[in-house]
């Protein structure tokens, strides 16, 4: 409330000053949406890229989230930054907000202040590092009213996101209700860990109306031909030993274990000369789409609760399918994460990310250089379908998902992102 009052007071003063300047320059004429923004550091997109990297390192150090959860945190930060920037720059519709700041305010200061405020609120232990980072960013922005107004508006935008996400279900206790049986998930080797991240399937989405809005139909029945094909492919290509995988397929499986997608977004924005509003939009759209894809995938995991390949192959003699054969010693190439098979979270996120990016960029040529934090290797994806196919294949070749869980997940992600694009992050007419 204190920040809201401070911003309201500041807004009144600056609005008056702005009107006076406009009256001198253009007597009797209103400001145009196409008016040039002050040049220099205030329009520097590097502030957004810098603070999304700070967000990533802070979240990793303070929250120690799993690969799925991290996108929820990234979405909090990037939506605050987006609202702070477009509230000054215009160009795109704000995210669940309608506040505006004077166009003379520094959008770079607003972006830094918004990210700082969200991260400081959620991770108070990181306050000294975050304060130092903010001081460093502001040192590159000319002192004065523009900087002050940007900082104030950034805090205001951040507080809106903090309030919006309050009590959203993050980290709640959500038990997995199903009892182990043929086809039903149970803890997997080697750790036999519980489904501790089940709460993700009950979190209030950022874009969707509910976690189950795009819940797909059920997975293939245990006696179906599709289930049989899935299991045979996994047994042949997903095993740690005795697999038919090529060395390239093995590299792909390991590459997709964990990716530096935030770095890839920043790199794309820099190489393509995105301005600060375009850059903030790119991050916010990509991160919210992936966050909701995770939520949708985990909703399906909770609802259907299907067993993982390692269980399915080892216990194939219990599935009632005469075409499958048990192998008690089968092990996947990758360690199986502690949650059900259907849907694949990684594939659902991949579909959502690519559909959101093609909508935002206006082309299927996504041109992403993505580094794997698991292997250190970098790959260049020219087109969206190349990335999507890579994610789908990788989870099969890693032995941790059925192809059906991947393909249906990918399609679900694309559907939810296409729906979201009609409502969010749209250009202002």
UniProtKB/TrEMBL annotation:
Transmembrane segments: none annotated. Keywords: Oxidoreductase, Peroxidase, Signal. Residues 1-33 form the signal peptide. Its EC number is 1.11.1.-. GO terms for molecular function: peroxidase activity. It is an enzyme of class 1 (oxidoreductase). This is Vanadium-dependent haloperoxidase. The lineage of its organism: Bacteria, Bacillati, Actinomycetota, Actinomycetes, Kitasatosporales.
């Amino acid at each position: 409330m204190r920040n809201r009052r401070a911003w309201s007071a500041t807004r009144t003063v600056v609005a008056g000053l702005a009107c006076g300047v406009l009256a001198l320059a253009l007597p009797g004429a209103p400001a145009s949406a196409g008016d040039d923004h002050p040049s220099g550091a205030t329009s520097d997109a590097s502030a957004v890229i810098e603070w999304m990297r700070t967000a990533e390192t802070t979240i990793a150090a303070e929250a120690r989230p799993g690969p799925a959860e991290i996108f929820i945190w990234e979405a909090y930060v990037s939506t605050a930054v987006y609202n702070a920037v477009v509230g000054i720059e215009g160009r795109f519709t704000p995210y669940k907000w309608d506040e505006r700041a004077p166009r003379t305010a520094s959008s770079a200061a607003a972006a830094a202040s918004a990210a700082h405020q969200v991260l400081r609120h959620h991770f108070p232990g990181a306050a000294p590092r975050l304060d130092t980072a903010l001081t460093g960013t502001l040192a590159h922005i000319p002192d004065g009213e523009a900087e002050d107004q940007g900082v104030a508006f950034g805090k205001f935008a951040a507080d809106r996101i903090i309030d919006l996400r309050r009590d959203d279900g993050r980290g709640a206790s959500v038990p997995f209700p199903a009892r182990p049986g043929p086809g039903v998930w149970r803890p997997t080797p080697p750790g036999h860990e519980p489904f501790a991240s089940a709460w993700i399937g009950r979190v209030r989405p950022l874009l969707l109306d509910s976690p189950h809005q795009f819940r797909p139909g059920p997975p293939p029945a245990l006696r179906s031909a599709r289930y049989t094909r899935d299991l045979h492919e996994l047994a042949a290509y997903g095993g740690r030993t005795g697999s038919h995988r090529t060395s390239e397929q093995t590299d792909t499986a390991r590459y997709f274990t964990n990716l530096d997608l935030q770095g890839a977004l920043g790199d794309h924005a820099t190489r393509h000369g995105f301005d600060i509003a375009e850059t903030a939009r790119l991050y916010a759209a990509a991160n919210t789409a992936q966050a909701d894809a995770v939520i949708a995938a985990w909703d399906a995991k909770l609802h259907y609760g299907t067993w993982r390949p390692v269980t399915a192959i080892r216990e194939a003699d219990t599935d009632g399918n005469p075409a499958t054969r048990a192998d008690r010693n089968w092990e996947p190439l990758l360690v199986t994460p502690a949650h059900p098979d259907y849907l694949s979270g990684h594939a659902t996120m991949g579909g959502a990310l690519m559909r959101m990016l093609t909508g935002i960029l206006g082309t299927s040529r996504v041109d992403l250089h993505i580094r794997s934090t698991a292997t250190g290797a970098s790959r260049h994806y020219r087109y969206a379908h190349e990335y999507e196919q890579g994610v789908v294949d990788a989870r099969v070749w890693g032995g941790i998902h059925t192809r059906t869980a991947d393909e249906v997940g990918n399609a679900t992600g694309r559907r939810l992102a296409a729906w979201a694009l009609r409502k969010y992050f749209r250009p202002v007419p």
